[in-house]
Amino acid sequence: MKFLKTLLANVLGTFIAIGVLLFFGFLFLIAIAASADQKLPVLNDTILTLNLQGSLPERVSGDPLTQMFTGEASIDLHTTISAIKAAKTDNRIKGIWLRSNGLLSSWASLEALRRSLEDFKTSGKPVYATSKNHFMMESEYFVASVADSLFLEPESIFEFNGFALTSTFYGDLFDKLGVKTEVVRSGKYKGAVEAYTRNSMSAENKEQMQALLDGIERSFLSSVSSSRNKTEDEVSSLMNEGAMFSAREAFDSGLVDGLLFEDQTIDRLKLVAGTDSSKTLATLSVAAYAPHVKPKTSPNKVAVVHITGTMMSGMPAESPLTGGSVAGSESIAKAIQQARKRTGVQAMVIRINSPGGFAPAGDAMLREIELTSQTMPVVISMGDLAASGGYWVATGGRRIFAENNTITGSIGVFSMFFDMSGLVEDKLGVTFDNVTTGPHADMFSGMRGYTEAERAILGKATDGTYQAFLEKVAASRGMTVDAVQEIAQGRVWTGEDAVREGLVDEIGGLDSAIRYAAAEASMDASSIEIVRYPATKSFLDQFMRSPIAGVRVIAGALSPQTPFIGSEQLKELQGMMKGQGEVQAYWPWKVVIR
């Protein structure tokens, strides 16, 4: 009997091992097939195509398996901009064709992309723009309006009705469920908690949200009017009066240059490329062109450390397989240390695209930045969002760069706790009882509300963190604490407004921050090597770290399910509940701007 058991175990083990080998072999073959289109040659007289679809993420792994199973974009913002910069001087590239197809990226990223296209045009090479889905909205037009020629197909729709910002509130839901929210906040504009306590914006929150929206509109009007040779008032009037245009009306209003089908646009691009009308136009996507752009190598290096996602304690430093971008304090600290110690690194740029998070986690990152600043220049570059804890970390830089439409500030903190007793006991009939060694031992159980003494305890901790935040900003910006208090209070600002208020030094993208850091280290910015941290991980790397999560992702990709209504909101609530009782320097406000 023992022999049979041993034999069966060995046979079973062999089959499992073979299965695992076949599985990973299958993944390897998929990866090879998926990456094949990234090795296309660059032909002479090529038109570079840029598909404006979905979002432009801060960073991607570039791993075909990750793209296949998680829906990760094939290219990120910075790789796109680098490719456009290289195409500017590549004699094989004769122009760029923008093809809008549902672009939903954040406005600061759109601003950076648009600026790179403006720079490309200084080469004398043209930029053409069209719409693949016969519909163009403001975010797409913001980028496409930079084109020398912008065409729509005759029956396309042109949305031009201004901007609206929508937020989600759970206050009424919690009331119906019997969930009570205990909140302590420092800063009257710290609207993050309102999503969980109200059913609409407070007057203060509406004020700051309106200011954000007005900032985006200013940037839009300024850029579009300049590109289309109109005044800002003319563009504004079209937005207020037109709302939705047919392609013909957009053409008559001077917003587009012509009404052409795709084959007619291709005929024009053939003239640009010098291609015979009877031959096929040579095109290459930016994603396929990017691998041909060889990064510069040099003994003189600038390190770029990316802090992307919600700040938490621990090791996560990238989007896990389960979704959601996380910046772990230990991972980021390690990345900064590695960059600082790397031979040849003489300056560092901290690229922040984060809403903040757990205050001590951000402070741990700040400590490493401060240590680095003792040995080399450290410059801050803000992406789409560098708010709350994101701004906390920024105080360690010598100079802060942001886009006009970066969301920043939110210098304030809060603590929040959910009392679930009404839901669990009254609605579900589940009761609890306990014994304690002190009056506050069960204050974080989630099964009762706070006493006045406990609210005072939490308030003291929250106010203490807020005071530390104010002092860090004051020391960093050369201001008094009282002066910081005037522009803090948890209020968010656009990058443009943050410059006026003294929270940001200069409007500019990552390239501007890198050039400044290089100059501060007495290096020639044209001959430096850029090294990025932390390293991105492939799907297999993440799978080996968390096999169960990996299997779930693969299963979901092979048999996709339509997400139920409210699934994203549920994930958001789960995330907030994990941090209950902790002091948060966080701006989790979910806003949709259209």
Polypeptide structure, described:
- This protein has 23 helices and 25 strands.
- The chain has 2 domains: 39-161 and 242-292, 2-enoyl-CoA Hydratase, Chain A, domain 1; 301-593, 2-enoyl-CoA Hydratase, Chain A, domain 1 (Alpha-Beta Complex).
- Helices cover 45% and strands 21% of the residues.
- Strand 17 (378-387), helix 15 and strand 18 form a beta-alpha-beta unit.
- Helix 13 packs parallel to helix 14.
- The chain is globular, with a radius of gyration of 26 Å.
- The protein is an alpha/beta fold and 594 residues long.
- The strands form 6 sheets. Strands 12, 15, 17, 18, 19, 21, 22 and 23 form an 8-stranded mixed beta sheet that branches.
Number of domains: 2
Give unreliable regions as ranges: none
> How many angstroms does the end-to-end distance come to?
70 Å
CATH class of the largest domain: Alpha Beta
Q: Give me the Rg, rounded.
A: 26 Å
What structural class do the secondary elements suggest?
A: alpha/beta
Question: What is the CATH topology assignment of the largest domain?
Answer: 2-enoyl-CoA Hydratase, Chain A, domain 1
Biggest pleated-sheet summary:
8 strands, mixed
CATH architecture of the largest domain: Alpha-Beta Complex
Q: How many beta-strand segments? A: 25
Report the mean per-residue pLDDT as an integer. 86
The percentage helix is 40-55%
Strand content: 15-25%
Shape: globular
CATH superfamily of the largest domain: 2-enoyl-CoA Hydratase, Chain A, domain 1
Count of helices? 23
